[in-house]
Structure prediction request, 441 residues.
Amino acid sequence: MSVTVNVIGAGLAGCEAAWALARYGINVRLYEMKPQKFSPAHKYKGFAELVCSNSLKAARLESAAGLLKTEMEMLGSLTVPCAKENSVEAGGALAVDREKFSDAVTEKIRTNPLIEVIEGEVTELPEGITIIATGPLTNGAMAEIIKNLCGEGLSFYDAAAPIVTYESLDKEKVFFASRYDRGDADYINCPMNKEEYLAFYEALISAERVQLKDFETHPFSVYEGCMPIEVLATRGVDTMRFGPMKPVGITDVRTGKRPYAVVQLRRENKEATLFNLVGFQTNLKFGEQKRVFSMIPGLENAEFMRYGVMHRNTFINSPELLNCDFSMRSNENIYFAGQITGVEGYMESAASGLIAGTAAARKILGLEKINLPRETMLGALTAYISDTFNSGKFQPMGANMGILPDIGERIRDKKEKYGVYANRAVAALREELDRIGKDNC
Prediction:
């Protein structure tokens, strides 16, 4: 195939797009500015770097996140198998050793003979079919290119949680358990009584925060999916107890009772030497993080290997700009992929790259288009980002059962209901793949 497609950005979306194109026998130029230049949030040299959490969310099919990953594998995903091969124990979630995951994706990309990696910052839009997957921190010349293509971007903020060492935890105060005893006891739990919780709450809401950097523009708007814990706390004294610190489904093994509040820690690497504070994305100053988070029982002497950070994200007004295959309405040789399109989440970003790369490949080869059924999670997400009805109020959207069409029957049990949704989605996608011919996808 003489056609070469440009993919700009080697994050989750860009790698999936490049891999999808190569699977169809199409040559790819994959542009990546690392290691010559790093964004304010990226540190690791490898591709598909996970910046915030190391969790790719639930693994079970009858969950939105699990269904999404199953559908991606059906389409030939690169990142889902790499994640499974480099997973760490996290109960019912698929969490990964982030460096080993990145290394695995990087090796797959760099050793593919159809993918040419070009290192360095892109300052001009390459000629030919191009997939822009530059990520939510796009700035400089590339930001100007996107602005000229799309108009003004929309800004919001994203945050990462701190990571502590396991050996520094007070084992007399914490215990391993999963919520409702679901799955293995992979989470470390730090229980709080009411007095401890209220003291922590007061310290948190009064702690000093980091001033926004020059590249982070106002107005200050926080996306709900990555709400900094201190911002969440300002919404009410009990807000955290109904969010990341909810004690429901947890029994303190020392007392046999449910704690007043609980902080959960999730394994960060395969060796189980590092754990992150689940739901504790933050923009507090580093010294304040040490002071306030050390008030959590068991973390009094915690060694923080990474403090939480917050950074700006940008996404385009996709409903006005994109077709359901992530190509531009005004120029169908240009595609967008990743969080910049308004899909929220690691796997959602990867999925958009998979869809864009697959769509571009099939168009180049003259193959019939894959029509992702609306009943599938992939189809629902593509419908969301391309529905002009959303253009006036567009906000990032992650995989969730609420965006799927109703099943038309009332099922009270949530797990059973979501199982029906998932089975319907898998069957619909399999039928579509059978329709176009398995040899052509």
About this structure: Residues 163-311 form a domain with the Elongation Factor Tu (Ef-tu); domain 3 fold (CATH 2.40.30.260).
